[in-house]
Design goal:
about 240 residues; mainly alpha
Amino acid sequence: MIETEQILIIFFITAVGGFIQRVTGFGFGIFVMLFFPYILKTHTSAAAISTLVSSCISAYNAIMYRKKVPYKATVPLLLSALVTIPVAVRLSVLVTGDFFNKVLGVLLICLSIWFLFFSDRVKIKPSVKNGIISGGLAGVLTGLFSTGGPPVVLYLVNAFSDTLSYFAATQFFFGLTGIYSTAVRAISGIITSEVLVFSAVGFAGSIVGNLFGKLVFEKLNKQRLRQIIYIGMIISGIIMVL
């Protein structure tokens, strides 16, 4: 039974998530999955809605900035993610998420602190090897918890010199992998009518947040964007651990 209160809460949460996604290029899944498991019936439904909404808003942004997408650089990311997502989706039915979320939180904190203070010494090249590793990890996290952003973001934000190329690449990747992950979930019987209804509400909310986030993003330079991303990851990691 879908209640009006649930709809309003999901709309608000996804609006904030859409704002975060537009400003940093990621973070929608991490943010909404802090709340969805407590609002929705199961962890799998929460992850399914998060992924579907995230893929829609990412696809929307990717289309808007399609001329800035560095397509060749995203191929290794996509190929490895497409391999690991189906495996992770099947495992997601068996995993509660508590232990793995805490591990992910600690990893986010450590990586973000390192990049925040030592990013000038770290140069991640957009190579095939680095792309495969980042995409594979992102696929696992997307399939399990709908939080596949961090590995891809750490790779792309250090790989490209301008903010628009970074943003376009992240949205192209998240859009395609999210749609693929949703298709895998649909085949597995996870996508129900309730998931579709809540996803429609979530997409409407994320569009509103996306419009406000665009105003902030256009005022950011590359250095400021990196700082916001790393600080956001530290906060997300702390919340996951606690």
